Amino acid sequence: MAAFKLKMYKNIGFGVLTMLLIIVSTVAILTYMNRDHDNHNYLFTLAVQHHVEIMLALVIIATGFGFFWSAVSFSQIEKQKKDSKKILETVMLFLNREEKQIVNFLVEKKGATNQAEISRLPGMNRVKAYRSLQKMQEKRIIDIIPHGKIRRVVLKENILNSVIE
């Protein structure tokens, strides 16, 4: 249902934008073409005489429409964030204590650190860190990137984005 509304708003938005562009272009062209001529056509005369009022009205309409569209977009983003938080909370239910500790540490470190730092966490040692990281990599929560003797641990971007507000 929400996807249908969003698609409908996008279609309406495209239609309104197209109409505004056509009207603005028409008024601008009519005004430019008739600036030196004495034309007796009512539409031309109306556009030329009231071009400032027409443009001002179009700016007001466009601004109002922009505020409406930004409110719709903002509500969609907020809904997506709430959904991501719920998904992350559900994922965290399936992690053991060490894995939760690692995820929280990675979030503090902006999503990346090395394995040696993780092994220095309270209650953690090198073997526990290695095994926990292997399990987390199998669960596709993190990526382990070897760089010489150092193993870089990176939290998946979609998880990091859902945790950081």
Q: So what's the oligomer here?
A: single chain
Q: Order of strands in the sheet with the most strands? A: 1-3-2
What is the rounded distance between the termini? 26 Å
Biggest β-sheet description: 3 strands, antiparallel
CA-based gyration radius? 29 Å
Share of helical residues: over 70%
Work out the count of structural domains: 2
Q: What value does the average pLDDT take?
A: 81
Secondary structure category = mainly alpha
What's the order of the H and E elements? HHHHEHHEEH
Strand content: 5-15%
Number of strands: 3
Number of helices: 7
Would you mind describing this structure in some detail?
The chain is mainly alpha-helical and 165 residues long. It folds into two domains: 2-92; 95-163, Arc Repressor Mutant, subunit A. 73% of the residues lie in helices and 9% in strands. Strands 1-3-2 form a three-stranded antiparallel beta sheet. The longest helix has 43 residues, at 51-93. The model has no long low-confidence stretch (mean pLDDT 81).
Can you give me a brief rundown of this structure?
It is built from seven helices and three strands; from the N terminus they run H-H-H-H-E-H-H-E-E-H. With 165 residues, the protein is mostly helical. The protein has two domains: 91 residues; 69 residues, Winged helix-like DNA-binding domain superfamily/Winged helix DNA-binding domain (Arc Repressor Mutant, subunit A, Orthogonal Bundle).
